[in-house]
Amino acid sequence: MSRSHGTGTTVERHSTGILAPIRSVRPITLLLLGGFDAQVAGRSIPLRAAEQRLIALVALLGRPAFRLSVAGTLWPEVTDEHALGSLRSTLWRLRQRGVDAIQVAGDSLRLRSHVSVDLWACVGSADRLLTSNGVPAAAKIEVYDGEEALRSAGELLPHWSDEWVTVERERFRQLRLHALERACLHLARLGQYGRAVDIGLAAVSAEPLRESAHRALIEVHAAEGNVGEAIRQFHSYERLMREELGLGSSPDMRDLIAGILASRTGPGKAVAAR
Q: I need a labelling partner for 259 at 20 to 30 A (CA). Which of 28, 105, 180, 217 fits?
């Protein structure tokens, strides 16, 4: 009978009762953000396009997937029989390269437990942030879980044009932007203005025409007392909108700026935002 120990070594109990090691499971890291990379024990392993796409698809599904469904998605132009044959060949080549990342159980495929995925870690951080009351109070003295990953995350598999990638790419983009905006505002409420501005700038950089990202950054500047920075950010956004789309900012944005100016000039002395 075989079983795995926490050290990553698989052992087998012989009839004598002695546990003997069979093999050591090497950790596999799958990087999908900013480009594809598969690392085994910290070393990048060159993979063919079909091998990359198979691992990426199974990772993006995030759950056991039927072999026929995976084969049909990756090789849609051939018969089911040929697609399944290509799937078997690709799985074999991955094992030969030392990238034993996919577990086959009956008719289903899934990533093995010793595979870590950067996308999963980033999505988990974003989900925790968006479903909680915001950044934990401990963030006053420590970087909260996932802050750096959210700030620096790249695009999901850029330049891959497969439909199953583009859908997940947009889903992750939206999730990350919402998480960045929320982190920006909550860090400001904790008085962590420098980190809040950094997070807000990451959101604006990721989507320069996204008004909610600019609003969050403007609110942080205003909360810190930097009205000039807030107004500068507003005018930068307005200029970009006119140049790119021929549009101005929304009434909500203009109301935000008017409120910031009113809070500094006193009742009846607000300066109209331009």
A: 180
